[in-house]
Amino acid sequence: MRLAFIMSELGSGLRRNLTMVISVILVTFVSLTFVGTAGLLQMQIGQLKGFWYDKVQVTIYLCTDIPANTNCVSGPVTDEQKTTIEDLLESPAVKPYVETWTFESQEEALGHFQEQFANSPMVDSVEAANLPSSYRIKLTDPTKYQIINETFAATPGVDSVVDQRKVLNKLFSWMNIATYVAMGVAALMTICAALLIATTIRLSAQSRTREIEIMRLVGASRTVIQLPFVLEGVIAATIGALLASGAVWSIVHFFFGGYLASSSSGTPYISTADAFVIYPVLILLGIVLAGIASAVSLRKNLKV
């Protein structure tokens, strides 16, 4: 009997406040979609870090005809200086930190440059002599870059030692900023959703003041009186959370797995299976958000 009464009151409230319920669904949907998107960005950044840091290289650029530092004042790198660098790479002090190394000549560097900038008008203005030859080093531990830098930075014939992680870190920093912006918008939208839910439940309860008084007179408990109103908010927010989960799935499936994966096949992107952990979090967040907002609204603003 009590359950039937609660369900009856719940149905009545949803019908009377259909416009406000739809508003709660939409605001919850938008706010939780931002939350889910922020989670996706952070997951993608983590996956890219694992992929690219595993492939990261340290590049030792050699001197050319144009001296860039004191190591190059004597002119381009000589065969003897190259032999010295290679001996250092194979020395007991350095070899444990080096997984593999390869030499890239100026002609090979030009070929790679032409591949990367095939659509650029500057590609025909660069010659092999303009590009330095280099040693490409894959470290056993990418965090040990400083050891390679200290060993080779002052070696004759070496122009510079570049850690590709620094370039990647800048990219990941911008991606992290985008994540924080998304999280900030998500937090703002979540606050808006909570306020709207609280307002909706308060107005719903105020429109049924007489019914609430009758329930109090017949001995209905505070929980029985409040529960239909709380369930209104929970149901609306749950629908919004389900829609947000669907939106997040669509982003992963069509954007990450479709558009981005087809445009850059060599880069790993998160899949719908990877993002599955986000969906229950969004639904749980929607339920908790609505439950707390509804309960607080009734306790603070209504004498029931």
Structural class: alpha+beta
Shape: rod-shaped
Strand order of the largest sheet: 2-3-1-4
Radius of gyration over C-alpha positions, nearest whole angstrom:
31 Å
Unreliable runs, pLDDT <50, ≥5 residues? none
Biggest sheet character:
4 strands, antiparallel
Compute the separation of the termini in Å. 21 Å
Secondary structure: helix percent: 55-70%
Determine the mean pLDDT: 78
Helix run count: 9
Q: What order do the SSEs take from the amino end to the carboxyl end, as H and E? A: HHEHEHEHEHHHH
Task: Please tally the β strands and state the result.
Answer: 4
How much β-strand is present in the residues? 5-15%
Number of domains: 2
Transmembrane segments: 21-45, 177-203, 224-256, 276-298
Family: Belongs to the ABC-4 integral membrane protein family. FtsX subfamily.
Membrane topology: Multi-pass membrane protein
Main location: membrane
